[in-house]
Design a protein that fits this description.
heterodimer; A: 257 residues; 2 domains; three-stranded antiparallel β-sheet; 9 helices; globular; B: alpha/beta; Rossmann fold; 11 helices; 10 strands; binds adenosine-5'-triphosphate; binds magnesium ion
């Protein structure tokens, strides 16, 4: 989480208008989802990975590691889709038969699993592109400009801040416990972990109370107002992004027919 | 000098039954530098929250510029434009993602336009020396940097009274010096400054007037020269004597200084007093 955020602030595409990056990521994501076959999502995966690694200069190792996170979930999910359990022994089914039940795969089920796999990873690659190149602050300010309801935007920005407050609180408590041998055995680990969870809740509650007090003292009035930074539009990025997306859309339309 | 803030017989008990203030009466003269001293748990932070209208006295009253505080929405809004607080723990103050946005929050709530806000933010960042941190997210800052951002975020609102709850705690010596210099600059712009501290040396050299709190009561007040020469008061409040006074007394006792030598306010004045060897 910390690392993603750090890259978001330091990558090569940082200076590009956040709205452009958001539009590019979301439109491409949409294409990945509506594409009728698995070729287009596959292209999108390579495209997004190429831009994120090649242009934004995110280290390959970190990027691949990040991909492992959804990968393991996906494999489990895909397996359930690919596998078919049936009593009718069809010719196309390949698998083992046991007591009249067949567990196996059909070409259609493999096709479906592959499509879902590629689409999911395609969507993930779009989101990774966005989160690795655009700081959350800028995404929030774009949402605000798009007139997303203030309550929602405030919630998102407070959540974002509190994720880090929570993480550092967990870190502090864990270090404090570990330095006093709180995790030497399984028994003490359970005990310490329980205390960590309870304390985290209490501390977070206290933090949010304090925050509210501090906000009030600075004139908080049911809306968090911030100064927005204006970014210049990058025509080059806009044209390139539009070109890529148009190409992908025409591919989609062609493969539909 | 007229009092800009006053507490009259203020009593406050926290919901868990802790009596934090047991009838505190004190006044903050306009344009002065006030230090509030007291050991841990004496009630300093609780008192400060009353000056900003965040806590409401259960008995007694708070006065701002001579008028009794009423706790309706508009009165509170006005009070908070005039009185700013920099809290003890900067982490409890900072909530936005970038430094620039954090500092812009207060001025925007005052209803200023973009240009004015931007120039105030810029000024506050320069005064606290954090212009280079402008785009940093607040969670990547060090403690001392967070403290400066917290101070800048209140400075940018340009209140007449600024209350600092332990501004120098956990800072390195250089930062302490810079913060004290900053307080001096702010004060020269006719602003009233109230601060709480455990550092008697800072309080002694810096303040025009001091209050000593212990267990929710004011047990001493006066010019720092008077307060810090009162040994029994220092004893009850668990405070130590500033080293300048220790050295001054020692020099006097051993005959290096005449008994009539004026009390030095800071290191420079003390060194000035000490005679050359040839005399
Ligand atoms: N939210 C709270 N709930 C209950 N009791 C509290 C709360 N905040 C403070 N207290 C109690 O009120 C008393 C005064 O606390 P306060 O924070 O005002 O002291 P302080 O002078 O600022 O101390 P320090 O120098 O440690 O900051 C203490 O006994 C403290 O335990
Ligand atoms: Mg305190």
């Amino acid at each position: 989480m910390f690392t993603i955020d750090q890259y978001a602030y330091t990558n090569r595409l940082r200076v590009i208008h956040p709205g452009e990056k958001m539009a590019f990521a979301l439109i491409t994501l949409l294409i990945a989802l509506i594409a009728p076959n698995l070729v287009i999502p596959a292209i999108i995966i390579f495209l997004m990975a190429g831009i994120t690694i090649g242009v934004a200069r995110i280290p390959v190792r970190f990027y691949l590691k990040l991909f492992l996170v959804p990968f393991s979930f996906l494999i489990a999910g895909i397996a359930m889709i690919a596998l078919i359990i049936t009593t009718q022994s069809l010719a196309v089914t390949k698998g083992i038969t046991f007591l009249g039940w067949t567990i196996g795969v059909t070409p259609a089920s493999i096709q479906l699993a592959g499509k879902i796999f590629c689409k999911s990873l395609g969507a993930v690659s779009c989101l990774y592109f966005l989160s690795l190149t655009t700081p959350m602050t800028e995404i929030i300010s774009v949402l605000r400009k798009l007139h997303v309801p203030a309550l929602l935007v405030d919630l998102i920005s407070l959540n974002y801040r509190f994720i880090f407050v929570l993480l550092s609180t967990v870190d502090d408590i864990y270090t404090a416990q570990a330095s006093r041998l709180g995790y030497v055995s399984l028994r003490t680990s359970y005990y310490s972990l329980g205390h960590l969870a309870v304390n985290l809740f209490i501390k977070t509650y206290k933090r949010s109370r304090e925050l509210f007090v501090a906000l009030t003292s600075r004139g908080y009035n049911e809306e968090l107002k911030f100064l927005e930074v204006n970014y210049p539009f990058s025509w080059l990025f806009l044209f390139l992004a539009a070109g890529l997306d148009l190409a992908l859309i025409s591919l989609t339309i062609i493969s539909w027919r | 000098m007229a009092a800009i803030l006053e507490a009259k017989a203020v009593k406050f008990t926290y919901p868990d039954g802790t009596q934090a203030l047991k009838g505190v009466t004190l006044d903050i003269p306009e344009g002065k530098k006030i230090a509030v001293l007291g050991s841990n748990g004496a009630g300093k932070s609780t008192l400060f929250l009353h000056f900003n209208g965040i806590l409401r006295p259960q008995e007694g009253d708070i006065y701002f510029a001579g008028t009794k505080l009423s706790y309706n929405h508009n009165a509170l809004k006005k009070l908070r434009q005039h009185v700013g607080i920099v809290f003890q723990d900067p982490d409890s103050m900072l909530f936005s993602a970038s430094v620039l946005q954090e500092i812009s929050f207060g001025p925007l709530n005052l209803g200023l336009d973009r240009g004015q806000v931007l120039s105030r933010v810029q000024k506050a960042m320069e005064a606290t020396g954090i212009t280079n941190l402008k785009d940093k997210p607040t969670h990547f800052l060090s403690y001392g940097q967070k403290k400066r951002v917290a101070i800048a975020s209140v400075l940018a609102m340009e209140p007449e009274v600024i209350i600092f709850d332990e501004p120098t705690a956990y800072l390195d010596p250089k930062s302490i010096k810079e913060i004290i210099a900053l307080l001096e600059t702010i004060n020269q712009q006719d602003k009233t400054i109230v601060l709480s501290t455990h550092d008697v040396d800072i309080a002694y050299s810096w303040a025009d007037y001091t209050y000593v709190l212990a267990q929710g009561q004011v047990i001493g007040k006066g010019k720092p020269e008077e307060v810090f020469q009162n040994a029994s008061l220092l004893e009850t409040a668990d405070l130590t004597r500033p080293w300048i006074l220790d050295v001054y007394e020692g020099l006097k006792k051993k005959g290096w200084l005449p008994v009539t030598a004026p009390v030095p306010k800071n290191k420079a004045e003390l060194l000035e007093l000490i005679p050359c060897k040839s005399n």
